[in-house]
Each structure stands twice: as C-alpha cells, then as structure tokens.
Amino acid sequence: MEINDKLIKKLAYLAKLEFDDEAKEAIKKDLEQMIGFVEKINELDTENVEPLIHMSEEVNRFRKDKVEKLIEVEDALKNAPLKNEEYILVPKVIRK
Amino acid sequence: MSIYDKYEVIIGLEVHVQLLTASKLFAPDSAAFGAKPNENTSFITLGHPGTLPCLNEKAVEYAVKMGLALNCPIRAYNYFDRKNYFYPDLPKGYQISQDKKPICGAGFLEIEVGEETKKIRIHHIHMEEDAGKSLHDQSEKYSMIDLNRAGVPLLEIVTEPDMRSAEEASIFLNSIRQLIQYLEVSDGNMEEGSLRCDCNISVRLKGTEPFNNRAEIKNMNSVRFVRKAVEYEFKRQIDLLESGGEMKQETRGFDANRGVTLPQREKEMAHDYRYFPEPDLAPLHLSKAYLEEIRQAMPALPHELRQKFTKEYALSAYDAGILTETKEMAAYFETVVAHCPHAKMVANFMINTVKAYLNDQNISIQEAHIPPQKLAKLIDLVVNDKVNRQAAQKKLFPQFAKDPQQDPEKLAQTLGLVMEKDDNFVLEIIEKVLNQHPDKVKAYKSGKKNLFGMFMGQIMRASGGKIDPKAGKKLLEEKLKE
Amino acid sequence: MKKYTKLTEVQADLKANLLTCQALVKAYLSNIEAKKSLNAFLEVYEEEALEKARLLDEKIQKGENLGRLGGLIIGIKDVLCHKDHKVGAASNMLEGFESLFSATVIEKLLKEDAIIIGRLNCDEFAMGSTNEYSSKGPVLNAYDETKVSGGSSGGSAVAVQADLCLAALGSDTGGSVRQPASFCDVVGFKPTYGRISRHGLIAYASSFDQIGILAHSVEDTALILEVIAGGDNFDSTTSCVDVPAFTEKLQKDEKPIYKFAYFKEALENEGLDSEIRSKIEERLKGLALAGHEVEAVDFPIMEYMVPAYYVMTCAEASSNLSRYDGIHYAYRHQEAKDLQNVYTQTRTNGFGKEVKRRIMLGTFVLSAGFYDAYYTKAQKVRRLVSDETQKLLEKYDFIVSPTTPTTAIGLGELINQDPVTMYLADIYTVQANLVGMPAMSLPLFQHSNGMPFGLQLLANKFEEEKLLRVGLELMK
After folding, report:
1. C431 in a domain, yes or no?
2. DSSP 3-state assignment of B120?
3. Which of B20, B227, B278, B352 is paired with C238 by a 20 to 30 Å CA distance?
4. Longest dimension (CA), chain B
C-alpha cells in the first residue's frame, strides 16, 4: 500500500490536521508502517462471515419523549473559547 | 418550437421534516422553536467529552407513521450511522444519521396533477439529527453559533427523480406537507424551517434515456422558491449544454432576492463522510406488534378521505380536495354531515361560505369554534326550504358566525329571513312586480322568455329574500301563463 | 500510618476508633507529596477531600452508618468527568476545561461516601501503553523510577502501587487497566462490555472502552464493581442484566474446580520474555496439580487480533475526537484567522503525536475506497474472534495467559521506535476488548529483574463473579 503525498493531503484535510514538511515525512513513514501492520487482517478468510456491528446485546433502547433542562445558557457558553452573551463566536469561513 | 421544448427537466427531492417531538432526537433538551439562543442545549447536545446519545422513542414512532403513510416497508432491523464532517453548527464533528439500513424502504406518493394521478416513488426515509444555526450577517469578523436546533429530530424523505415539472415538484411538496400535518408528526412550516428540501435538478433531451449530471440546490424553504429554482435551472442548464458547455455535478444555493441559483464555494476535495455504524446506540428491532399498533392508530389519510368523499358523498374530486385540505376541515365536514345528511349542500356551504369566512378572518376551522351541530342546523334550514340559500349564505351565516353559540333558527327568525310559505304572500308580490312592468309581460308572452329571470330577480328583491325561489318560480310560471 | 490493602481493614480501624477519615486522607496526601516525582496525580483535591473526610468523621461520631465505600480514598483517571472539576484526558486540547456533569460512576462512588482524592495522569486520550504520551509528562514506576508505569492508566496503577490512595478507576480499551496493573503489581480489572456506564467517560473507542478498577485486593475490586456497575439511561450500550452481590458471593466458602484454557500461540509468541513464560507455565502446572483442568488449545487467529483492534479503535477514535475542533469548548488556537485555520491549527497544536497518528489511520480505514478492505474486514475478524472465544468459554471457565510479554520497559525505550512495536505488546490484552468479555490481571509474579508481572484471566460475558472468585483463590 503506497502512502504518497496525495493520500496524506487528503487524510489531513478530512481530519483537519496539518503537517509541515518534516512532520509530513514522519507521518508518511508512520502510516506506512501502521497500515502495513493492519493489512495483515486481509490474510484471513472471512467469506460468509457477518461483520460484528454492535457489541452490546441490547436492542430498542428508548428514552421517553420528555423535556429535561440539564443546564442553563451560562453553562452552555461557559467553556466556549470566544463568546458574547448569547452566541458562540467563530471566525468567518473566509476572512476577506 | 424553442430549444427549451426539446428538453425535459428531471427533478428529485430530499425533503427534511422536523419532527414535533417535545425533546430532541438524542438528548432531553427541548426541541421547541423560538427560544433564546443556546437556551435549548445540554452537555449532550454540545458534544461535551464523555457524553452519549439516547434515542427518543417518539421520533421512531413518527418515522414509522411517515413510512406507512408513504407506502414504505418498515425495516424491522435498522440502526444509526455516523456521518463525519466538520462544521461549526455540528458540535460532535459528526451527524448521527442512517446510511446503510434506514428505517423505511422504497415507497410512493400519488399526486394529482390536473386531471391525472402520478406516482412519485420514494427511495427511502431515514432519521437523523438536525444541525444548529450559524448566523453570518451579524458581525463582520465572526459567525455566531446557536445550537438550539442542533439535535432536533429530522426525517429525510428521499424521492426518485420522478418529477418532470416545477408544478409536479410543488404539488409533491404540498402533498407531503399536507400528509405530515395529517399525521401530526410535524407542523410542516416552511418559513420556520420545520420543512425544507434540497432539489436535484437535471435536464435531458426528450425521448432520451440516460440522466445527465445534476445540480443540487440546497436548503429551499418555500414551495414558491422551489418552483423558481426549477424554472431557472431548467433554462440555465439548457443554455449551458446548447452553447457547448459541460454540465458537472454541483451544489448550488438559491438567491431568493434575485430568483437565481448560484454556485457554492468550490471545494478542492469532495466530501468523504466516512459513514460507519454508530457504536453508542443500540440497534432497533421493531416487532410486528409494535408496527401493527402504530398502523392501527393511523388517521385516515388525505387520499383515503378524498376517495371516501367522492364515493360516499358523491362529491366532485375538486370539492373533495378542498374539504380534505386539512384533517380538521375533513373531520368537521363529516361531523356536520352526520347531523345534516345532505353532503352536497353541506359541501357547497362549507366551500363557498364558511371557507370564505375563514380566509377573511385568517383563521382555521378549529380556531373559528363554530359548533358543527349548529352549522348543521343552519344548513338544515336551507335544506328544508325554511331559508333560501342566498339569504343563508349572505345574511344568516355572517351574523351567526359572530356568535356561533346562537340557535340558527331563532336567529333566522329575528333577522326575518324565514321564508314565507304562504302562496298568497308570494302571489301578492308577483302581481305587484308584474303590474310594474306590463310591457315586459307582453314581451315575455310574445316570446322573450329570458325576461323570466329578470322577473324572478325583482320578485326576490321585493320579498326581501323571504320567498322560496322554487315555489316562487312555479307560481310565476303559472301567473305568466294567464 | 500503616499501608492498607483492603477497605475492610480501613473500615474496621475506623469503627474501632483507631483511625479517622481525616487522618487517613492526610496520610495519603503526605504520601502523594512525598512521591510527587512519580507524576501520578495531575491534580490533588486536598481541601475537598479533607472536608468530605471531616463530614464523614462527624457522621461516625454521631453513630451514623457510612455508605458502602465509606473510608475508601480513590483516585480517578483524567478521562472521567467530575462536575465543576477540570478534566483533560492529559491533553493540551482540554486544558482548563471544566465538566458540567459527573460521570455515572463518579456519582455512584460519591453516593456511597467514597472520597475522590485527585485526578490521575494517563496517556493522552487513553492512547498509549507507557503513559509517555501524556501532555503532562510520563508516570514513573514506583518500584523503579527508570521504568514506565504502563498505560494508558499509568497514573491509576502507580497511585495504588505507591500507596497514594487505596484504589483507582481507569479505563481499558485494549488493556489500559490490566497492562499497567501488571507492570505495577496491582489487581487490574475490566468488566464485560456494558457492565459499567460510559456516561462521563471521555471516549476513545466506543465499542471497546470500559471503565476499569485498580486495587490491591480482589475484595476491593469486587466491592467497587458492585457499586459502580449497572444499567444507565444515559448510556444505551449498558446492559440491563442484574448486578450480582459480588462481595456477598465472594464471602461464601467455596472451593470450585475450574477448567482453564491457554493458547499455544500465546506462550510460543516470539516477543514473550522467557522467564515470564516459564513462570506462567509453572503456575499452570500448579493449577493442574491442585485439581483443575488445564489445557492448551489452538487459537490460530490470535495474530490477527491486534491489527483488527487497531483498525477499529483508530476508526472510532478518529470520529470521537472530531468534537475537539476549537469551536464550542476548550482550546482554540488564538492566531487562527479563519474557520479552516481554527480547525487545523487547533487540532494540530492541541493533539500530541500518537493521537494524530491514530486519527490519521482511523480516517484512512474509514475513507471511501478503503472502508471495505479495512474497516468491514476488521469487523468480520472481530466476529470470528468473538465466535471462537465464545465457543472456547462454553467449554472452559477461563482463558489464561500472561498479561504482558515483558515487565515494565525503560522510559524512552519504546516511544522513539516505530509505533507498531508498541502495538505488538498488546497481544494478550486486546482480546477481552475485541470480544467485550471481562478480564483481570493478578499481581502474582516477580521477575528476577526485580519488576512484577501479572497473570491474566478472561471469562465469558457477565461472568465477573466467577472471575473474582478465581482471582481470590489465586491471590491466596
């Protein structure tokens, strides 16, 4: 499995991470190793095996449709990095 | 024939229906509209570390109802998936949705397009949580995030690309809106955003098979805008193709002010949502008993009522359509008919007089608080020839509506609208009128039969509407034979 | 103050007025201070713990009964939310963040009068096997400060090892409670998946994570498990199965005969230290001599467990960590000028190296074109391992193995090598998380190099009672 710059760029874009040249070389190497390692599972014959999707045996775990106010507005905004009285603030998508 | 006539438009819709549950899909915060910013949130909605989703049972019930109403098979075993992407109004960095096993499979909705019935196929229906809101125009530097809407339950209804005109698309949307209001799963209010849709629009030369690339117009919140967008896109895409351009699959937004669609910012790389099964939620195994219980509790649907009204009450399709516009109207109509079993008369009265009143007052039938039994009594007066129809519609009902607790018969008497049954009274008036127009009488007798109507009009006016027109006609005819 | 290894000892001394809760807390606080260099604690709740102790002492004086955990001084891993307290997953990403709610397990502990003495160091977001990936520095092994504590619940293990508290809660996704327990000479316990609520546990890999217990004794493990286990409406993956009265059951005088299975492949593993191998084999012989059945079985798919584990946990982690985006709470990179930069600069600076590696791998295995080959394939391997393990545990009571292939390695040894070398050391522990079954590491051995190592037992789902019983027997 070839880990090239294009793949790194795409994965970094999806994961919202950035790698400078040095870090890019390092992550390329690491990923090559890690992917090479996990690729091993392809040796196993899993024809007719159903993927295991849910770990718990539970089904139909429902919550009643009842409103519960767990926190106040002040709490909601408390941990926000930047805010005003009502909203969380975020720099615009593109800064002109 | 213009170049546009060579093409047809292909439309598919993804309709988002916000469900009318009290709490959110995966958290117990209120799902109500209109609260102060960030008031309806919790640590779960905010996606704080260590929080987990918990599924609202009502949302599942509503999804099943919707699926049954759209003739979809309900997937007994279904589960949720994560749709991963980053956006400020998406606190967890993923949306919990359904990708591989949505709750409802392929179904259809039949719509009336003019005289014809057309089947619009539904691809599937799935449940998902809504995102919060970002406000971009409040500040120059910053966008403002309000997470009240984040986590509100949505049903996404995805159609096949079966619609072939802006009209079909708008009829479909209106039919969906009517359906969700009948089912009481949503208030279907497009202005408030509880009903929105994405339109997928492409064009192709008539008579050809393969679909061309489409434009996806996102977040339409009015049927009128959908029409405009379709009309605009139809022309734009044809112009593009005809001038040698290539139609690429793209996402566009609709500019309501200018009535045009605009390309959204080009992304260097396409979205890869990396769907995988949501490990924090147990799957659903909906039993036959559970589904049957919901099916039993389903209300009669618009098309079922329309059929009933045309068959049982012998109403026209058009009239049936109007009377089933809302569930409340249909139920009201049936209650009135139960007390006054002259469906056609009741229909006529409701469609012409009552509805005009409701439109005028800008209220719904429920808000008018007119006891159906009393209205039935009023209409009965007409049926029994106690009050003539015109008088009932123009004079009696308006007065009655002012205080609908009144007894309509007493009111009619007070207003002097009860028709005179005494033939002599009628003959007196007939004679008076005829004596006023001797030349016209002569003209009638010598062949001008259309003057009959004029005489009738005069007689009715002179009587103050107190004459039964049927009786009056008969007597006039006889008198004119003399 | 003497070193306590059982809560019953503490409670007896409290009752006999030989000890007060305040004295107990003061003693642990002074141990914590003395052993500061181990870097086990990120935050010590000195005032709070003393105040709670004072209230409990008042209760005792009035002749009132304390809760079941009265006298228990416990530490919690920095992945457990505690209302109005900082929680950080040992990451710069959550620096300064205060939780708005308490984890269900925390509420249960407090209800039974446990005293939480502080928040414990761990690998960042529970990703690591040596506690060297913490943004707050590594945790040192109390027996040899040149060696690692193990991870990711390194602080939890060392805190108990070094007598800084009586027990600790950690989290176990691939062995993160059992492995440090093995390195630090304490009992490490992971329950059945769904036995303990994850509400308030900072998620790493949702279908693998479980809160685990570190203690000196099986008795304390059983008691704490009994208190914190149970279904929870906040966590849809919890089981509604009854929680047995573990403590009561352990008090029964029983001498059961068990069937133990061990994998040939496990003991023949290249990476297994030969002394560990021989000591374990010796112990197994001892079990057979004591009348138990001990059999070697083939488990040819053993070598696929760790790769499948990493595919799935990294995938789930890449999604679970998307919420750390600098937007709604916690760290946001201040120089970021537009939205994309808020994301990338926050996450690039806020996350450490190992976290970023796993997010990248996770993103890869979920991405279009690779999902089927990696993620779906791993889910199938998981199914195979589950079915095979299930079959075995219908025949046998336990699967027994070493907990770790080596004793605690030296600081700096693994961290500068390629990531895969570290992953391979998880060979014995990941099975329990892949299949969702309970497992425990018992501090039964000492290596000639002076460091401890554990014996691991794996039981079938919801058979914690059996596991605790055999643990009790083996510890005698």
Report:
1. no
2. strand
3. B20
4. 99
Mean pLDDT of C246-268: 93
Highest mean pLDDT among B121-130, B187-196, B379-388: B121-130
Q: Which chain B residues are closer than 8 Å to C198 by Cβ?
A: 50, 52
Q: C445 φ, ψ to 5°?
A: -125, 155
Within a domain: residue C147? yes
Catalytic position from the list C52, C77, C279, C466? C77
Q: Is C289 left (phi over 0), alpha (psi -120 to 50) or beta?
A: alpha
Helix (H) or strand (E) holding B95: strand B94-97
Rounded to whole angstroms, the maximal C-alpha distance in chain C is 71
Question: Pick the catalytic residue: C91, C129, C135, C152?
Answer: C152
The Cα C124–Cα C77 span in angstroms is: 11
Let me know if C152 is a catalytic residue: yes
Q: Maximum Cα–Cα distance for chain A, whole Å? A: 58
Task: Say if the Cβ atoms of B282 and A59 lie within 8 Å.
Answer: yes
Q: Which residues in chain B are contacts of C234 at CB distance < 8 A?
A: 52, 54
The residues, any chain, with a CB within 8 Å of residue B241's CB and separated by 6 or more, are B203, B212, B247
Residue C133 domain flag = yes
Domain membership of residue C111 as a residue range? 7-250
Helix (H, G, I), strand (E, B) or coil at C297: strand
Across the interface, whether the CB atoms of B51 and C199 are under 8 A apart is answered yes
Q: Determine the Cα angle at B389 with ends B383 and B391, to 5°.
A: 130
Residue C399 tokens read as 């699967």
| pLDDT(A96) > 50 | no
pLDDT at B449 over 90: no
B47 touches C at CB < 8 Å: yes
Looking at the complex, report in whole angstroms how far the Cα of residue C149 sits from the nearest Cα belonging to chain B: 25
C458 assigned to some structural domain:
no
Q: If DSSP states are collapsed to H, E and C, what string results for B314-357? A: CCCHHHHHHHCCCHHHHHHHHHHHHHCCCHHHHHHHHHHHHHHH
Q: Band the pLDDT of B267: cuts 50, 70, 90.
A: low
The whole-number pLDDT of residue C24 equals 98
Residue C249: CB atoms within 10 A of its CB come to 16
For residues C121 and B234, what is the distance between their CA atoms, to the nearest angstrom?
Answer: 62
Nearest CB to B92 within list C100, C322, C371? C322
Q: For position C68, which CATH number holds?
A: 3.90.1300.10
Whether residue A70 and residue B39 make contact (CB cut-off 8 A), yes or no, is: no
